[in-house]
Amino acid sequence: MNINNSLSRRVGHISKCTQQHMDIALKPLELSSGSYPFILTLSDEEGINLEKLSRLIHVDKAMSTRTVQKLIKLDYIRKLPDSKDQRACKLYLTDKAKEAVPIIRKALNDWLEQITADIPNDKLEELYSTLDTILVRAEEK
After folding, report:
1. pLDDT digits (tens, 9 = 90+) for 94-120
2. 6 occurs within a structural domain
3. Count of C-beta atoms within a 10 Å radius of residue 91
4. pTM given for the model
């Protein structure tokens, strides 16, 4: 078995299935699998700029710009000038987004519970630990 192709294929497929699930679950909120990470990240760290948001989500700045503009139009994010740097803006959640955060987290948690339902906790902890190790190495690039 080629472990590299096998790991990449499995992780990629799980990611695609998760995207499909979240697209369906978040459709009533007019959100998608590509937009909810922006809301959750800002929920954890409001007032950051677009560059930092892009780094935290691991997407390029162009993708972040498009997604943030969409979320501004949908009244999920507001952009305010940075008082320390006139060229920069800080991003904040609107009340609408703050109300959506628990719904997003529940949809994600329900999905994760569904796909890990029959796996014992000790095996899940081992899996998460192994994936954390792989992720650290991947981010070292």
Report:
1. 999 999 999 999 999 999 999 999 999
2. no
3. 23
4. 0.88
Number of folded domains in the chain? 1
Distance from the first to the final alpha carbon of the chain: 25
92 lies in a domain? yes
Range of the domain at 129: 15-140
Rounded distance, CA 40 to CA 49, Å? 15
Residue from 53, 21, 25 nearest 40 by CA: 53
Cα–Cα distance list, 5 to 10, 13, 14, 62 (Å)? 8, 12, 14, 29
Tens-digit pLDDT profile for residues 6-55: 888 899 999 999 999 999 999 999 999 999 999 999 999 999 999 999 99
Please report whether residue 57 resides in a domain.
Answer: yes
